[in-house]
Write a structure and sequence with these properties.
There is one protein chain. With about 725 residues, the protein is mainly beta. The chain has a single domain, classed as Maltoporin, Chain A, CATH 2.40.170. About 5% of the residues lie in helices and about 50% in strands. The protein is globular.
Length: about 725
């Protein structure tokens, strides 16, 4: 069935390309066929909710090394480090658990980026930041236009437009900790349209010993103006990672001896992802637009590891052939966590500009079918480098399951304008069907879920460039297939995660050169879903944490002396970004999920991995387009790591307070005038501060000092 679907998609794409090639090139360029969450930064003045955009200039000036650096410039967003390269992002928004970004909807050009946003919304893959030219982040009521995740926010990565004229760009960079990067792109006219090809190769030793991170990312984009009213964008990408990287963190004793140590030198992570998509835009008359997208992705992941958390030393230590850490390189086996996902879908969005009973406005209606198939296996091997099931005490096939999710979704959202005041109501519908087959015991089961997700937003314009916005919407995150159907085929009484999200904000230009975006927010959860075990990681059994509340304020202030009219060529620019999450706690009658503490009342305790303060400040100087120098200071406040709010670090390192951390980043860019080349030097974590990034599977250190230099060429 999957092969048939893929053949249909390929045949459809070939038909579209054939039609594109038959069009004449002598037509005006149509609007880009891309689904946008926000669009250009100026559009934020029309959106009734908090949101930011990260522009290409921001990424280049900072010479962003990973997506974590990019998101630290966005208020309300907590990107937690893991391996040091941002390959498996952990993005938390407004105090939500950041592990594997499960409470965030990730999109690329408006199309799902995650391999299973319904059945397993965990990020074990992320393309390099160099593939994108812009990033959109939306956290308000308007996110009901997208789904299924509507709790934390929507992050949409925008790929560059294909160039009108032939051009090529090349960037080569290197640095300490084994860093090497080659980034190249080329594009121009093709078959009556335009194309863009991008390639990125990146290597690094990461944040710990015995790590060797390596990946290659290839992408292609084609754009055709089929007629003055029709445009087509087609995309294809292939990502391959072959890394030496461990899953487990350190025990307290190991961290004290060597904070960047790692004994599991035989661990291996291999993944590849193929993605294809096409979006057609049809401008129907002067006031209606229809965007239709089809997408398919195939994702495979093999993670062979000798420990899944710091309580396993190693995972098969009870096997007499292993016996403990002394034999991890000889007779101790491993665990192969093997996953494959096939995901496809079709979506259409109709946008209508209208004037109902004399009231100007816009209505958007969307419909989507989405399908996911997960194949999950666990093979335990006999040796540190096994790639097949073994015969030892703890070896063999331990899991063999097939999990499927099929979902229909629809939404309607309108904007009505009453002079300086607008109202923006919307509602989303989700119909989700789950199935699970356990091949080890032949057990199977099915279940389903129907949800209505309403929201409404308001804006009032004090003047053309300053607005007040407010909104309320229902937050929704579907349960995973394994959370709603047991391994024996029975039903599990675990409802979807739901909340009511409120916000009130001010956005715009206070005075020429100074812009602000500040918002008060509150998220009331009926049943926030958390891991039932502290060290289980994203694959652990989940449970309801009951009622919780997140309340806080986020603020972003940016300034530019050039925009203020102080300078005409030079510029002194900067930003202050702060998030104060003064409340993130258990408010219902709730007891601890920590093993052995089930009778301890945790009502009033703070949620894990929800720092009270996140602050990022940046200041820079630019000499025209030829030189820029900037410094950034990033502060992450202390945070608890369990619902008991344990302060002292326990022996396995998985519980205990994570202390606050402050890092300094420095960047210099040089582009000589009338030359095709440029150069840059950047120092990340310039003071080489040692800090703990995570304890969920044991202690993981944040990246140390990284000194990097690169050269760029444009042809």
């Amino acid at each position: 069935m999957l092969s048939l679907r893929l053949l249909i998609l390929i045949a459809s794409a070939n038909a579209l390309l054939t039609f594109a090639n038959a069009q004449t090139a002598d037509i005006d360029r149509a609007t880009d066929a891309t689904i946008l969450v926000i669009g250009q930064r100026l559009n934020l003045l029309k959106i009734p909710g908090s949101g930011q955009t990260i522009e290409d200039e921001d990424l280049v000036r900072a010479r962003v090394f990973s997506l974590n650096e990019a998101f630290r410039a966005v208020p309300g967003v907590f990107p937690r480090d893991e391996e040091g390269l941002g390959l498996r992002p952990n993005i938390g928004i407004r105090g939500l658990l950041p592990t594997r970004s499960t409470k965030v909807l990730l999109l690329e050009d408006g199309i799902p980026l995650a391999f299973a946003p319904y059945g397993d919304n965990a990020s074990y893959y992320h393309p390099p930041i160099g593939r994108f030219s812009r990033i959109e982040i939306l956290k308000g009521a308007s996110q009901v236009r997208f789904g299924p995740q509507t709790i934390g926010g929507v992050i949409n990565y925008i790929t560059p437009r294909a160039p009108e004229e032939a051009e090529a760009k090349l960037r080569i960079a290197g640095g300490n900790e084994g860093y090497f990067e080659l980034d190249a792109s080329a594009g121009g006219p093709l078959a009556g349209g335009r194309m863009l090809v991008h390639a990125n190769r990146k290597e690094s030793d990461g944040s710990r010993e015995n790590h060797a991170l390596k990946f290659t990312d290839l992408s292609w984009k084609g754009e055709w103006d089929l007629s003055p009213r029709h445009a087509l964008t087609a995309r294809a990408s292939y990502f391959f990672e072959d890394s030496q990287v461990s899953y487990s963190g350190l025990t307290l004793a190991e961290f004290l001896v060597n904070p960047r140590g790692n004994a599991f030198r035989n661990d291996s992570f291999e993944t590849d992802r193929l993605g294809v998509s096409a979006t057609h835009r049809w401008d129907i008359g002067e006031s209606a637009t229809l965007l239709t997208s089809a997408y398919y992705s195939a994702f495979d992941r093999d993670w062979w590891r000798q420990s899944s958390n710091s309580s396993q030393r190693p995972a098969d230590s009870s096997d007499p052939a292993c016996g403990g850490m002394a034999n991890i390189d000889t007779t101790c086996g491993n665990e192969g966590r093997l996953r494959s996902y096939d995901t496809w879908g079709v979506e259409t969005r109709l946008t209508l500009e209208h004037a109902l009973i004399g009231i100007a406005g816009e209505t958007e209606i969307g419909l989507r079918y989405h399908d996911e198939v997960q194949e999950r296996r666990q093979w335990n091997g006999d040796t540190p480098t096994s790639r097949t099931p073994g015969v030892g005490v703890n070896a063999g096939v331990r899991e063999d399951q097939r999990r499927t999710t099929a979902a229909w979704s629809a939404f309607i959202r309108s904007r009505f304008e009453f002079g300086d005041f607008t109202i923006d109501p919307g509602v989303r519908f989700e119909w989700i069907d789950y199935a699970r087959l356990n091949s080890l015991n032949a057990a199977s089961g099915e279940s389903g879920l129907d949800v209505v997700v309403p929201g409404i937003g308001l804006t009032y314009a004090f003047r053309d460039n300053l607005v007040v916005y407010a909104g309320v919407h229902k937050g929704f995150a579907p349960p995973r297939a394994e959370d709603i159907i047991s391994s024996t085929g029975g039903s599990i009484d675990l409802d979807a995660e739901e909340s009511v999200n409120w916000e009130l904000g001010l956005r715009g230009t206070l005075t020429p050169g100074i812009t602000v975006d500040t918002a008060l927010f509150r998220m009331d959860f009926e049943n926030q879903i958390v891991s039932a075990s502290v060290a289980g990681g994203v694959g652990a059994t989940l449970t309801s944490a009951g009622e919780t509340v997140h309340t806080g304020e986020e603020m972003l202030v940016s300034f530019s002396a050039k925009d203020a009219g102080i300078f005409t060529r030079d510029d002194v620019y900067g930003r202050i970004n702060a998030t104060w999450l003064w409340e993130a706690g258990f408010v219902g009658n709730r007891f601890s999920n920590v093993a052995g503490f089930g009778a301890v009342d945790i009502t009033g305790n703070r949620l894990p991995y929800a720092p009270e303060w996140l602050i990022s400040t940046m200041i820079g100087y630019a000499y025209g387009d030829q030189l820029s120098v900037q410094a950034e200071i990033v502060f992450t406040g202390e945070m608890f790591t369990d619902d008991l709010n344990t302060v002292a670090v326990i022996a396995n390192g998985q519980r205990g307070l994570i202390e606050s951390a402050t890092i300094l980043n420095l960047t210099v860019n040089l582009t000589p005038p009338e030359t095709p080349w440029g150069a840059y030097v950047t120092v990340k974590n310039a003071t080489d501060e040692l800090y703990v990034a995570d304890r969920s599977r044991g202690i993981l250190p944040g990246p140390g000092r990284l000194i990097q230099a690169g050269v760029t060429f444009a042809f």
